[in-house]
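Problem 12. The chain below contains 372 residues. Write out its predicted structure in token notation.
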Amino acid sequence: MPHAPLTTLSEIVPPLLAWYRANARDLPWRKTRDSYRVWVSEIMLQQTRVAAVLGYYQRFLSAFPSVEALAHAPEERLMKLWEGLGYYSRARNLQSAARTVATDLGGEFPDTYEGLLALPGVGDYTASAVASASFGRREPAVDGNVLRVFTRLTDCHGDIADPKTKKSIREQIEPIMPIEPEDIRVFNQAFMELGAVVCVPGGPPKCDVCPLADSCLGRRLGTAESLPVKSPKKARRVEEKTVFLFSRSGKIALRKRPSDGLLAGLWEFPNADGTLDEAAAGAQSILWGLTPSAWNQRLTAKHIFSHVEWHMTGYVLEVSGDGPGDFFWADGPELEKRAIPSAFARFLSEAKILLGEKGTEKNLEGGTSPWA
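Solution.
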């Protein structure tokens, strides 16, 4: 039986709210209106899957139960708790905003879209999401899920990477938002939930279980699977790196990355640009004032950022010497305290193996230095 076309957007509201109330996932941040907790969840969920955020959210709030606790947290502890979530500038902006709220706003979050938008790290979507979820403001929270649902629902072929398209969609959603604060909160959550579990990305929408199927122009016209339209991203730049796991007397060499740029201020294993062969890796070690005494292992790894891709070759070496002044030699407990980004996960796992037997390095393959 053919489906009737969408006549007015307002017709989607009752079935959408009813569907959400019957089918919403049980997520901890949906059980509170506390602006601090809602805000933390929204920042964590930016470009990150719900499943990945759940454990971090609980641990983070246990460590920093209030905006004041976050404002005064040592940066090293903050970054360690964020380790593995990626996009580390989010954590720094989170603390910067917490300091603004705690110091300048008496510990109370702004209750308007405009006030929230003024906080560090808060953009249009986050300001709308917190304003609606915590304060019942009629602000459409338009994320990727909402853009996908809306473009399919209305057969919109505008480029969602174009700010004009997003602005237009926001302007079309705002008039149909409910009036009651609780319905407002549910409406935004429902739109996003529909995109997350029914009108999904990376595959055909699940129209057979969609509460809006009878109103969907994309389904009726057969265009849903081709929507939304989004201009292609620029190809990621590939960077080759050589990473060194230097072990010495039960400790591993670390150094801190610069205070700005990619992975700013986090800890890393010493590395050099390019893919160095064994001779060049040995020469680089010597340039750092280290003398290799045993060659233990060669590793490879790859890590993809949004705009760059690292292809890494790694060497596990026993050395003598102190190295440059910015090298920090960490034993097992010290290694655990420091935030090392997931880009170095392969090397971190190996470092833990090396330090796993009472701080004594474990010779993984044996062998002698190729530079002896």
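Discussion. The first helix runs from residue 13 to 23. Students who got a different answer should revisit the alignment rule from Section 12.3.
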